[in-house]
Specification:
Strand order of the largest sheet: 21-20-23-18-17-16-2-1-19-22
Radius of gyration: 23 Å
Number of domains: 2
CATH topology of the largest domain: TIM Barrel
Largest sheet: 10 strands, antiparallel
Strand content: 25-35%
Oligomer: single chain
CATH class of the largest domain: Alpha Beta
Length: 477
């Protein structure tokens, strides 16, 4: 990913944060679709809090590929469901797919899964295809351009011969080598390190040291690239940004060999608030949010690898947490607001990609239903300009206001997200912040609507009003 330092625009505008305890007529106006939300009239009987918003510096440059990514569920998905799920993703900006299914105990080359017996002991082999890679391949090759994707290597076994066997199978048998390889998943959870999968037991307690993991990665890359020199690798899919030993050693030994390093994030509120909804949004400004974890992950990679300053860093799995206890709100409208705010944070952190966990939170392939996070991707993010990114800073006592500007040539867009549950925002958009085109467009979504509203080829209003839990994308096209 290229990183430059063009001069940012130095602008400011005034935003009014308005309590939602407004006159009933105003509340009604806010809840009846976008045309009534956009207004240039004053807010009667409102109690505004004034904030200053200024455009900050250049953040980085991001194309849709690989920034918009998703863990793509391939477990038990039939060919017809793949086609349906794939058709949905074809309508989104998602271009990077991390194949999700099977797990480290599944061998796709033999279609055998090793499972722990109920009473404990040696894992039991079970035959049967857990993941439909054939259907996934067919869908990926039908795209133009074809999708970019990641596949697993059997890293927990620490078996270079097995890794080469996987690579040969994907390239020669499946005839669909991945864009990048990952070395198993979340190595801090491994308990069978260095043990052949056929001998795994529930009593195993073999974990890799940082050095052992890094050497395993080096050995796998050397052996596979001797046969397939164009193959690329993600150095680690760390369970969190806190895996300092594994990440540090992997960066030190393999930083020059890998194309990216990845960590996983499932932010949650640091301390409980007044309600599950408040907790859900509070995760966006908790210590485990993207802003803090990306900065920490970048620091531990750079600390041991002077050549890694420009190494792409990925958020390889992301959803509102905590991990293992994901919120049901992610499948409702708050999930779309959460994801939109997270897109802003990931661009601000200059992460190479934001991989949503998982495709089932965007699209239900059983009922062929698009869920709110999927609706956000299809109806709003698909219309977002991707290119150079600029920070937009909001100085206010209210939490949960996110914004970012993106440009590509003369095309420009500004994404606003109000993740506050009790405040509305009202603002004007001066020419110094946004340059209208001959025709302009905007997309808006609040909790009162079942889907985003799109307005293309229109004259922009002189003022905007965003209710709590709403998303607004403005573009000059």
């Amino acid at each position: 990913m290229s990183i430059g330092t063009p001069s940012p625009l130095a602008v400011s505008l005034t935003i009014v944060i308005v309590a939602v305890t407004l006159a009933p007529s105003v509340v009604g106006a806010v809840s009846n679709g976008y045309s009534s939300v956009l207004t240039s009239t004053p807010f009667p009987r409102a109690f505004p809090l004034t904030a200053t918003v200024s455009q900050g510096g250049y953040l980085g440059n991001h194309s849709s590929n690989p920034f918009f990514a998703v863990l793509y569920a391939v477990t038990g998905v039939s060919a017809s469901r793949h086609a349906s799920q794939g058709a949905f993703f074809n309508s989104t900006p998602m271009t990077w797919f991390r194949a999700y299914g099977g797990g480290d105990s599944y061998d796709p080359t033999t279609q055998i899964n090793y499972v722990p017996p109920p009473g404990g002991g040696t894992y039991v082999p079970q035959s049967g295809s857990l993941i439909n890679l054939t259907a996934f391949r067919a869908w990926c090759l039908s795209r133009n351009p074809t999708c970019s994707w990641l596949a697993y290597l059997p890293a927990e076994e620490n078996n270079t011969q097995a890794a080469v066997h996987y690579a040969l199978w994907y390239h020669k048998v499946l005839r669909f080598g991945p864009t990048e390889w990952q070395f198993g998943n979340e190595p801090t959870a491994w308990t069978h390190y260095g043990i052949n999968m056929t001998r795994w037991s529930t009593t195993d307690n073999s974990t890799p040291t940082g050095t052992a993991y890094a050497v395993m990665v080096r050995n796998y890359i050397t052996a596979i690239q001797a046969i397939f020199p164009s193959d690329r690798f993600v150095g680690i899919e760390a369970a969190c940004a806190c895996n300092s030993t594994l990440v540090t050693q992997s960066a030190a030994v393999d930083g020059k060999r890998v194309t990216a390093m990845a960590y996983h994030g499932f932010p949650s509120a640091t301390t409980p608030t007044s309600s599950p909804l408040n907790d859900y949004y509070a995760s966006l400004w908790s210590s485990s949010n993207i802003t803090n974890t990306a900065a920490h992950f970048r620091s531990i990679v750079a600390a041991s690898c002077s050549a890694c300053s420009n190494l792409p860093l990925e958020l390889g799995a992301y959803q509102a947490g905590p991990s293992g206890n994901l919120s049901p709100l992610s499948t409702q409208h708050p999930g779309a607001v959460f994801l939109a705010a997270s897109v802003v944070q990931a661009l601000e952190a200059n992460l190479s990609d934001l991989t949503l966990f998982n495709s089932g939170y965007m699209y239900n392939s059983t009922s062929n239903t698009i869920l709110p996070q999927g609706m956000l991707a299809q109806r709003i993010l698909a219309n977002m300009t991707m290119g150079s990114d600029y920070a937009v800073h909001v100085s206010t006592g209210a939490q949960g206001i996110f914004a970012v500007e993106t440009r590509n040539g003369s095309a420009e867009s500004v994404l606003f997200v109000n993740a506050n549950v009790s405040r509305s925002i009202s603002f004007s958009l001066p020419l110094s912040v946004f340059s209208p085109g001959t025709t302009n467009s905007y997309w808006f979504w609040s909790g009162s609507a079942t889907e985003p509203a799109a307005h293309r080829g229109v004259t922009l209003p002189t003022a905007f009003q965003l209710p709590p839990q709403s998303i607004l994308l403005i573009g000059n096209y």
